[in-house]
From TrEMBL:
Native organism: Kangiella profundi
InterPro entries reported for this sequence: CBS_dom (IPR000644), CBS_dom_sf (IPR046342), Cl-channel_core (IPR014743), ClC (IPR001807), ClC-type_chloride_channel (IPR050368)
Gene3D superfamilies per UniProt: CBS-domain, Clc chloride channel
Pfam entry (one): Voltage_CLC
GO cellular component: chloride channel complex
Topology relative to the membrane: Multi-pass membrane protein
Name of the protein in its database record: Chloride channel protein
Subcellular location: Membrane
GO MF annotations, alphabetized: chloride channel activity
Keyword field contains Transferase: no
Length: 591
């Protein structure tokens, strides 16, 4: 058995933390690198013809006609390019990652990642109201998935690597390694386990290190140092901020879904052109809606935007983002959610300062709380939003009101408006379901390689006593019965041993000295009395969930584990039964 085969077998179980940590670190470097390249691409003179790299100005200083034409033409170009692709290659973004995790064991196709890189970059560069974090998560996850696929690792390990790529992407985009870890566990992996935590933490750290080497150690947002709650009398007002953030998030999710449903049958190029034209029209009067908009977010955090600008930017951004997201432009929603939250928080801070001047905190404090609230409510990721809030501000004083507002915002979305997260809504519209039972959640985190029995041998269904004796020499537990080089059934080895002993005893009674002809007499293993069962085949990379589902569909209770070698031959590695799967689940849930 080769070294890589031994590694694959080890990675199928829970006892491969050190190995997974090393591979997770490598994936973190690849994911961080892909995100840095994407950011450099979108900010380079090759595509970002709309800004002045010397003065860092954004779209506000441009002529109104330029603001109209840039997103319109950009949307048309992106749409025409997308129209040439097969529908399955147009799937990009976080919802694509979630779909591949739920239905394809984390195997992300490289073609979609290239589409995300090229067309996602053009979308951002043409000033559309989308973010770069969604494409970044796709690129990071695809980079890590590529490693798992190239090494032909067990699917449970590949799923963890996708989480590593996601964490590194968030860390590289925001310089928030802890938030990257929580986001990956909360949204992508959807569980908290030590086997996942350690490699994901290392990957997130790797992403943060790379982005600091290239872009410096500054955070994405210029957060003022005087963020602190002024009075406990503000807490009811933070409840109102949370409520407003939840309502805004619900409106965004519901309206985006309506736009998506109305435009379902439209040609792709028409969707993107309408989206770009809509952004251009809005940007004539409200240029802040174009692009990522982090300059406007920083201004809101510094308290530099007037109430009128905050309101206009908020209304314009939510309309523009609803149209862009609903019409399937290949960009993300995390950036726009942070933008909308900052504007909402700034509005609430200005109003609170006017109504309660003796108790109100700094306006930028409310903007920061609003960012975390809307992000957590739109994505249904309250813990990730809270960690991002803490890391971005580096200020523990913000946690107390932030927790309160974020929780209220999430409750409004889920309980009052009965909405799923933005990405779950996208998948539901396509007839896909992210929900998974706790049992299957455990089974998909363990590979068959870590549970299967390797104590087995193979025998042709017509074998001689000498052949059987040689096969049973190492006392295997199972016998795979072959016919024409194909596995036909599974036999308990002890039944075969018992039959051979009884046969020999009977022969001794009849003939004290068995002749050579009796030793060469063929025994039909399919006809002797024994506990035999039909079985299905399961790839060595499969998880226990895949093996269990395959047995259920075939109405069988056993499977043999195989892998196709480089020369096209089927190599058998072991046997797994339904009882082994059940015992493993019970073992992992011992009190």
């Amino acid at each position: 058995m080769t070294l890589i085969d031994r590694l694959r077998l080890r990675l199928g179980g829970f006892d491969a933390l050190a190995l997974m940590a090393v591979i997770g670190l490598i994936c973190g470097l690849l994911a961080g690198g892909s995100n840095i390249l994407f950011r450099l691409f979108t900010e380079s003179s090759l595509v970002l013809w709309a800004t002045d790299p010397d003065t860092k100005t954004d779209y506000e200083t441009m002529d109104w006609l330029y603001r109209l034409l840039l997103p319109t033409i950009g949307g048309l170009i992106v749409g025409l390019l997308l129209q040439q692709l097969k529908p399955e290659n147009r799937q990009v973004g976080v919802s694509h990652v979630l779909e591949r995790m739920a239905y394809h064991q984390g195997h992300l196709p490289p073609k979609n990642a290239f589409v995300q890189f090229a067309l996602g970059g053009l979308t951002i560069a043409s000033g559309q109201s989308v973010g770069r974090e969604g494409p970044g998560i796709h690129l990071g996850s695809a980079s890590a998935s590529w490693v798992g696929q190239k090494l032909k690792l067990p699917n449970n390990s590949t799923r963890i690597l996708v989480g590593c790529g996601c964490a590194a992407a968030i860390s590289a985009n925001f310089n928030t390694p802890l938030a990257g870890v929580i986001f990956a566990m909360e949204i992508i992996i959807m569980e908290y386990a030590v086997a996942s935590f350690i490699p994901i933490i290392l990957a997130s750290v790797a992403g943060a290190i790379l982005t600091r080497l290239v872009f410096g150690d500054g955070a994405s947002f210029d957060v003022p140092s005087k963020l602190d709650i002024q009075s406990l009398w503000e807490m009811p007002y933070f409840l109102l901020v949370g409520f407003a953030g939840g309502v805004l998030a619900s409106i965004f999710i519901i309206a985006t879904r309506k736009v998506r449903q109305v435009s379902r049958e439209w040609p792709v190029w028409l969707k993107t052109t309408v989206a770009g034209t809509s952004v251009g029209i809005i940007a004539i009067g409200i240029p802040q809606v174009m692009g990522i908009g982090y300059d406007s977010v920083n201004s809101a955090l510094q308290g530099e935007l007037a109430l009128t600008i905050l309101v206009l930017a908020l209304v314009g951004k939510i309309i523009a983002t609803i149209i862009c997201s609903g019409l399937s432009l290949p960009g993300g929603v995390i950036g726009p959610a942070l933008f909308m939250g900052a504007m909402l928080g700034g509005v609430m801070g200005n109003i609170g300062g006017e109504l309660f001047p003796d108790h109100a905190s700094y306006t930028g404090f409310y903007a920061m709380i609003g960012m975390a609230t809307v992000m957590g409510a739109v994505l249904q990721a309250p813990l990730a939003a809270l960690m991002a809030l803490l890391e971005l501000t580096n200020n523990p004083n913000i946690i107390f009101p932030g927790m309160f507002s974020i929780v209220i915002g999430n409750l409004v979305v889920t309980q009052l408006f009965k909405q799923q997260s933005f990405w779950e809504t996208q998948m539901t519209d396509r007839g896909l379901d992210l929900r998974v039972s706790p049992i299957k959640q455990v089974l998909r985190s363990i590979g068959v390689a870590g549970v299967m029995s390797r104590s087995m041998t193979t025998l042709n269904f017509r074998s001689t006593p000498d052949e059987i004796q040689v096969a049973l020499k190492d006392k295997p537990r199972w016998v795979l019965v072959m016919e024409d080089e194909h596995v036909t059934s599974l036999m308990v080895a002890s039944d075969l041993v018992r039959y051979m002993m009884e046969r020999e005893e009977k022969q001794r009674e009849e003939t004290p000295k068995p002749d050579a002809e009796q030793k060469r007499k063929v025994i039909n293993l399919l006809k002797i009395p024994a506990n035999r069962q039909d079985l299905v085949s399961v790839n060595l990379q499969a998880t226990l969930e895949e093996a269990f589902d395959k047995m259920e569909q075939a109405k069988m209770s056993a499977a043999y584990v195989y892998r196709i070698t480089h020369d096209g031959q089927e190599r058998i590695y072991g046997v797994i039964t339904r009882d082994m799967i059940t015992d493993q689940y019970v073992y992992t849930h011992k009190p």
